[in-house]
Specification:
Length: 279
Amino acid sequence: MKRVGILGTTILFAIFGFTVRMQAQEQHDKDAPEKQEEAKPAEHDKAPKPEKQDAKPQEPRHEDDKAAKQDEHQQDQQGKNGEKATKDQQKDQEKAAKDQQKQDDKQQKNQQKQAEQQQKSAQHDQQNNKDQKRDDQRVNGQQSAQQPNRPSPQPQHGNAGAQQSAWQEHRASNWKSQHRDWEQRGGYHGYRIPDDRFRADFGEEHHFHVASFPVVVEEGLPRFQINGFWFALVDPWPEFWAADWYETDDCYIDYYNGGYYLEDIRYPGVRLAINVFVG
């Protein structure tokens, strides 16, 4: 009987232990999913994976910096181009201003020169009028005082030998040293031809051969007469002129720098000082 009681007790304990283990296993199985579900959020919270994801946007920032540098370079280049264009425009404006100033100065000089020429012409006309009145008074006063027996100069017109002798004696040996213009002679003080008469009969447009007019020698100077005026050569004629220039060359009477001169068109720039007489 005791053995049966012990066996029965042992069986009960075994059943109770098995039951307890089964309940514990079931409880463990129930609790295991909850622990796993709680562990997953913990592992997700631990991993700093967003930092790795943040590393990728750095490339767009680099591209942005590069684009910003390009924009900055482009702006600098545009600024330089603008400064260059401004400087070029300033240079063009300065050049245009200088050119305009030159033109204004040139125009002013031309106007001043014209004004001076007009003033000289007016002074010449005024002086001519004064000289004409003075000479008329002098001629009228001297006509009655002239010696009636004084021989007048005998013209040598048509006598080629006499003319040649007169002209050859008045030839220069060194014209550059022997020649003197009216300014060097202290100014012209002879008779002044009225302006209208001068324009009508003399000047560069009125050519003549000296030998075609009456020629005389008085006080050692050859004279020739044109339209009532006598012209006496004060200067010797140059040695480099042709020996028969007075017969072959076209000449004219010129008024230059306050005095009268004889010029030969074959030798431009060579002026022979002459004096003018009337009567």
